[in-house]
């Protein structure tokens, strides 16, 4: 199961392009070891932002987002993602997506939501959003 999850996550990360994502150059894997080779990050590392308390004044990025959900989601989300017309519906939608993102950042691979399940969850969230 972990092998399929790694392969799926690697494939997704290789094709996803976003200004806040680090490019995956390649991967190395065998039965005992799995690793992604990422593009150089000149301003630090993602691990420090996601998990470390020593670098970012008492809260990691994950804790900051987690603490903001659901009541203060706008403190962590770009305001351009939420339109004034249907503010409540968009906030609920964005909150749901942020919760999925937090599940993808769980340090334990065994507890982390795998990408196949993430796709299903995101489809359900989207369908619910479209139904409203």
Protein described:
There is one protein chain. With 132 residues, this protein is mainly alpha-helical. Helix content is 48%, strand content 8%. The protein contains five helices and two strands; from the N terminus they run H-E-E-H-H-H-H. The chain has helices at residues 2-15, 46-51, 61-68, 87-104, 115-131, and strands at residues 24-29, 34-38. The protein has a two-stranded antiparallel sheet. Helix 4 (87-104) packs antiparallel against helix 5. It is globular.
Keywords:
single chain; 132 residues; mainly alpha; two-stranded antiparallel sheet; 5 helices; 2 strands; 48% helix
State the separation between the terminal residues, measured CA to CA. Answer: 35 Å
Helical percent range? 40-55%
Strand segment count: 2
Radius of gyration: 16 Å
The assigned structural class equals mainly alpha
Largest sheet: 2 strands, antiparallel
Average pLDDT reading: 77
The ordered H/E elements are HEEHHHH
Which stretches of 5+ consecutive residues score pLDDT under 50?
Answer: none
Strand order of the largest sheet: 1-2
* Total number of helices: 5
Strand content: 5-15%
Shape: globular
Protein name: Serine-threonine/tyrosine-protein kinase catalytic domain-containing protein
